[in-house]
Design a protein that fits this description.
The complex is a heterodimer of chains A (567) and B (179). In chain A, 38% of the residues lie in helices and 17% in strands. Chain A is an alpha/beta fold. Chain B is of the alpha+beta class and 179 residues long. Classes of the chains: A alpha/beta (567), B alpha+beta (179).
Chain lengths: 567, 179
Amino acid sequence: MKESKTLHISGAEAVIRCLLAEDANLIYGYPGGAIMPIYDELYKFQDQIQHVLTRHEQGATHAAQGFARTSGKVGVAMATSGPGATNLITGIADAQIDSTPLVCITGQVASHLLGSDAFQETDIIGISTPVTKWNYQITKASEIPEIMAKAFYIARSGRPGPVLIDITKDAQFELCDFSYKKCEGVRSYQPTPPLQLEQVQAAAEVINAAKQPMIVWGQGVILGEAEETFKNFVEKTGIPAVWTILGLSALPTKHPLNMGMVGMHGNYGPNLLTNECDVLIAVGMRFDDRVTGNLSTYAKQAKIVHLEIDPAEINKNVPADFPVLADCKASLEALLPLVKHEEYADWKAKFKVHMDTEIEAVINKDTQPTKEGLTMGEAIVAINKHSGSDAVIVTDVGQHQMVACRYAEFIRSKSNVTSGGLGTMGFALPAALGAKMGAPDRQVVAVIGDGGYQMTIQELGTIFQTKTAVKIVVLNNDYLGMVRQWQELFFDHRYASTEMTNPDFVTIAKGYYIEAQRVSKREDLDAAVAEMMACEGPYFLEVCVEKEDNVFPMIPTGASVSDIRLS
Amino acid sequence: MTDITRYTISIYSENNVGLLNRISAIFLKRHINIVSFSTSQSEIPNVFRFVIVVKVTEAQVKKLVQQIEKQIDVIRAYYHTDEETIYMESALYKVKSSYLFEERKIQNIIKDSHANIVTVSPEFFVIAKTGFRHETEKLREDLSPYGLMQFVRSGRISVTKAPMGISAIIENFNKKTKQ
């Protein structure tokens, strides 16, 4: 236990020294009255800590999320009290449901004003409680070192999540004795359940006895830094593996046992065969309803093995016949020597047959279209080509997201950044900024719809100011495409408030001094993507796509995974 | 698993501002009404105890307890059926003093109920009764015709027949952090 020497400093300076002690030297935020003492210290420490001024506090949280997702570190966002704090909430809720480690720091009115409806006072502890892993209000400077240490520990340990620390303005001014000790445990919190060998043994037996097993992996593999172990497990067992949207990129796209995506717009085979497998091995995933469809008809024939770090996920949606409660890296390592190899040739052939059907019915039309209008799929294919399938792909929410996740190719992990659980439109542009800062040596391509783009479009200003080389691709169909698709399929073509009259996006990007172009013809697409990828700085590319294309396959809400539709 | 039953949820936790809000939010999010709620010091110094009664299915109560236990400041949470616990509630009844002399029956009601008279003043007297719900309820019904000036019943308090093992968890943690 290393303890730094004691200093006598202000609470505000203590906050900065805590951030430095936690190796958080890049933070996103927006100043305001109740957090000015901390910003004053940021000014003094600007040679050690970079503060990125987003154009809206929501952007700060999404940028911090993007940073966390590509770097594996804790993202930090900062805002003032009142509206500054409430503007963080969407990003915090997103981080909570997608298990992203964040520490959010909000200023608060002075403690003697709490409860007086003071200027810019909100009960941000009350407001953030349901969407944080932990939160705490600091009213005394002396609390800062211990609480900040606890905040980082809780955010990153176990199943990660967002923590909000609210600091009253008087606590920021107050002097305190400061020495920093990293948090090593909280008595009421067990981040990682200890592995139980009998659970591992039982799981290994059922896996070894399986005739038609299937692995469904999620983000737990990435959060647990278990990619290598997971790959070994897949290869040793020979079991076909499929992914949830947040698990994407943990195993390379071209891996022979990577059979594709499950869920509402997942691949045909993985969804159909969910209801044919005899053992379903869930690894670091939580059986979201977008994955399972109707629970009463989900994998009822299968024995469920569930490798999971969070005890609250066991039996939450799908009863686990063989739970293995631990960090999935530890579980997989323990399972590895116990499992045997099989070819599962006939079983794998079924995936192939269904994939051929899907290629014929859907994929060829999406990725090699012959009709006049551009498709979203061919734009993604062009990005694959010019990035060597090695870009970080950041997506927003909607049709473009499903298409990008279906067709983007990956060769390494932490390459897919998307808003999965919350489905937050407006996520991608600020998240891409953070993703690029978290992985500065990598190409980062944001793929966004015209709707979501306009929800946080102001972050172009942040991208321009920080000269962050994000590639922005807007797939523009002048519609809120996914909602329009549902209106077409389930609301008899009544397009209520889904058509958008859009501005000139290229001119807007150029207004921010970002290089930009628009393509609407197939023959121009390849060169435009090539130019974008070759550009040193940020780049904006608008691809005008077919207005009323739909995303298939599709499992309608509430239907069984077996009822997946190809058209 | 699908029958709605009365369950007592017991929570051992740190005594932190905001935890009550965090726990009640778990019920709110699932649109579950809380039947009764009480908090107090537990048998362990600096460890707080919540006793919450809900009427839900066993599947629901299991998930509630999982979500409660997931909260950082919660040490441990459990659920029990009535049969697995010793439980009671307390009630206070405020009645006009004049009734005590005017209505002979009221004296018999108090005597039969084994309730205690807590205080008597020229204007009112207060009766306290501890017991099962039907016992405090019967006394309320019996006194109602005479005009209860005030009535209040506490949340359920309960202890379990089985041991809880919280001290062991805390000792374990203390040992680990000392290493």
